[in-house]
Specification:
By secondary structure, the chain is an all-beta fold. It is built from no helices and 11 strands. It has strands at residues 2-6, 9-12, 17-24, 31-38, 45-50, 57-59, 67-72, 77-82, 91-99, 113-114, 118-123. Strand 7 and strand 8 form a beta hairpin. The protein starts with a strand and ends with a strand.
């Protein structure tokens, strides 16, 4: 499966953005999907994930309560809704997929497919 992350951009602190992770080449419905972000020079950080069914999600502590992950099988897409954005949310955001009925977590090695990343910049 090929993943394409999009929706990044420049937003003021306190604003919102919605990122999309669209799949091609295969249906995404059999995959759990995680979102990660990375600031240049730093390790990649787990943002959150959603099960293949969409029934369960989990989030990193830094985004909990502000970010929401959802999915639509018919559109073969997973979204990351980001609210109350802070300058420290500035990063390149990636989506990744792992096959199976699991709640995805921060272990990057467990993901077999990665999108190319989309830049999110939050100004103060």
């Amino acid at each position: 499966v090929q993943l394409q992350a999009s929706g990044g951009g420049l937003v003021q602190a306190g604003g919102s953005l919605r990122l999309s992770c669209a799949a091609s080449g295969s249906t995404l419905s059999s995959y759990a999907v995680g979102w990660f972000r990375q600031v240049r020079g730093k390790e990649r950080e787990f943002v959150g994930g959603i099960t293949w069914s969409g029934g369960s999600t989990n989030y990193g502590d830094t985004v909990k309560g502000r970010f929401t992950i959802s999915r639509d099988h018919a559109k073969n897409t997973v979204w990351l809704q980001m609210n109350s954005l802070k300058p420290e949310d500035t990063a390149v955001y990636y989506c990744a997929a792992r096959w199976g009925a699991v709640l995805p977590g921060p272990e990057e090695d467990e993901y077999g497919y990665w999108g190319q990343g989309t830049q999110v910049t939050v100004s103060s």
